[in-house]
What we know:
mainly alpha
Amino acid sequence: MPEEVSVVHEWRDLSRRYAALSCALEHALKDGHGLGMSEFEVLDRLAEADHESLRMQELGSSVHLSQSALSRTVARLEKEGLVERCLCAEDRRGVFVRLNEAGRVRHAQAQPTQRAVISATLPPAAPR
């Protein structure tokens, strides 16, 4: 039982830290850049793709959003003129998302805020 109690305490601590970080990111990104945390994560993953389009399914698994939540997030970003969606030429059911220049600029402006909040909220990771 003591091991079980320890694991439960560890889980609760992890949940508390995640909630605190999520709230801090949501406020800082919204106040400073007009982006929610999920919107920033989508921009961040697309920026990491280095001018490549990502398939919606690939993007969804990397940002850990449900298909419907990802669709709503991408729709908001598209409406703001930060991303573009296009159909896959080989499979008309496939949808790709690409960061455009306005999205690159907004991401570049918001990234230091996101990184600063993470650094201030999380303790440094132990060396591997």
